[in-house]
Write a structure and sequence with these properties.
The protein has 298 residues and is α/β, with parallel strands linked by helices. 41% of the residues lie in helices and 16% in strands. The protein has a single domain, classed as Divalent-metal-dependent TIM barrel enzymes (TIM Barrel, Alpha-Beta Barrel), CATH 3.20.20. The protein contains nine helices and ten strands. The chain has an eight-stranded parallel sheet. A two-stranded antiparallel sheet has the order 8-9. The protein is globular. The protein starts with 10 loop residues before the first strand and ends in a 19-residue tail after the last helix. The N terminus is likely disordered. The protein binds zinc ion (ZN). Zinc ion binds next to loops.
């Protein structure tokens, strides 16, 4: 029951957190306004602290259900499943478990998280350590009958664990994991992957490694991104970036990708709507510079 009759269930577009042009409102009000703008999904940002309570989770779940918004949740930034310090690794496990439990209370299907840093370890050792931690987490969630999908994210800095290959391999090795592909990170990490052919190649790789169903419930992040030789520096709006998002949308369409796209630009509602309109063919590429979000609070 999305407010937009043209909204395809196949690919949903939404914001990371409350649209940034709205000030001093609750998350459930932010979800309602996002829906009224024509968006169809929303990522709860628990990245710096956990601001949820049982009551807030209930209101979020109710609002999302009422407005047909699909929820996901981004876990704490303070997770490093590859920490050589056992205390930090265990605290990271606890944070991810907590995120999954809150996601269930809010009715969020997926939890997105950053696996951690290589530190002094090789990529192979890091992989093993992260895999072991995730197996422990998944076994606990299974025991609790949690329906939540854990989604390790592809990362934008070279010091961070999370190339496309690492994330796909992790999803193959650990049950119940599915990827979060952040194409801005993928682009910023190497300064490449910015054309229709390269986007398609990544999607074909996902299909090959994880099967066709992975493309039918894919979770994607996108923002404009500023980067240097170490990778990502900061998020910027799509129009200010060098990212070829019209080619990206075309690749998703042609590969018949289904799932959710969460926009993380500073003006994330505008960019999410821009992408959605391009996807639906309601906006020609030459019109995109003049695109504005029209919203009046009624
Ligand atoms: Zn992230």
């Amino acid at each position: 029951m999305s407010p937009d009759a043209n909204s395809p269930d196949s690919l949903r577009f939404g914001t990371a957190g409350i649209p940034s042009f709205l000030k001093n409102i609750s998350t459930w009000e932010g979800i309602e306004i996002a829906a009224k703008l024509g968006l169809d999904c929303f990522e709860l940002e628990l990245v710096k602290s956990n601001w949820l309570t049982g009551d807030i989770a209930q209101r979020i779940k109710q609002t999302a259900t009422n407005f047909g918004i699909k929820l996901s949740l981004h876990a704490s930034y303070f997770i490093n499943l590859n920490s050589p310090e056992e205390g930090k690794r265990l605290a990271s496990i606890e944070r991810l478990l907590s995120a999954a439990r809150w996601a269930e209370k809010c009715g969020a299907e997926s939890v997105v998280f950053h696996c951690g840093y290589y530190g002094q370890r090789s990529p192979q050792e890091s992989f093993q350590s992260i895999k072991n931690s995730l197996q422990e987490i998944v076994s606990i969630l299974k025991f609790e009958n949690s329906p939540v999908i854990l989604r390790p994210e592809t990362m934008g800095r070279r010091s961070q664990f999370g190339t496309v290959e690492e994330i796909l391999f992790l999803c193959r090795e650990v049950e119940r994991l599915q990827p979060c592909l952040d194409f801005s990170h993928i682009h910023a990490r190497e300064g490449k992957i910015n054309s229709y052919a390269e986007f398609t190649r990544i999607l074909v790789k996902v299909e090959k490694k994880l099967g066709q169903q992975a493309l039918k419930n894919l979770h994607l992040h996108l923002a404009g991104v500023d980067y240097n030789e170490q990778g990502e520096i900061r998020h910027i709006n799509l129009e200010e970036s060098d990212f070829h998002f019209d080619e990206w949308i075309q690749a998703l369409k042609d590969m018949k990708v289904e799932g959710t796209i969460i926009c993380e630009s500073p003006d994330q509602a505008r960019d999410a709507l821009l992408l959605k309109k391009l996807y639906l063919g309601q906006l020609k590429p030459e019109e995109k510079k003049f695109f504005e979000v029209q919203f009046s609070q009624d």
